[in-house]
Amino acid sequence: MKAALFALLCCLAGPAAAAESDDSARWNGIWTAEGTLFSVEVAVQDGRVEVRQIESLGFQWSSGNASVSGASLLLEAEYAGVSGIIEARLEERGHAVVFARTCLPDYMVVCVLARNRQAVFRKAAE
Length: 126
Known about the structure:
Blueprint: H1 2-10, E1 16-17, E2 29-33, E3 39-45, E4 48-55, E5 61-69, E6 72-79, E7 82-92, E8 95-104, H2 109-114, E9 119-125
Antiparallel strand pairs: 1-4, 2-3, 2-9, 3-4, 5-6, 6-7, 7-8, 8-9
């Protein structure tokens, strides 16, 4: 569960620069982690990615740079003493798979639990 939460939390960000693409508008809207109340609002506009907390389940996280390239969104994030790069991929309309691409230090429990795990987000609204 903590691994999925790390992926979910690290997917979240504040304002960050992004590379616009044809798919960037597909990210706009409210996204909810499947099977949870955890949700965020994503806005990609004028070369910027912004993710706002709607329901974070009380978890504290922070983020750095983000970028959109095609159907992928990359985000630098920190949570519970670890930092990493989170990748979210649009799989189909209104469905994205999120996973930790990197997680350091790799011996931390959050990183160990996040390894080879993914979370599914569904787009709830635009």
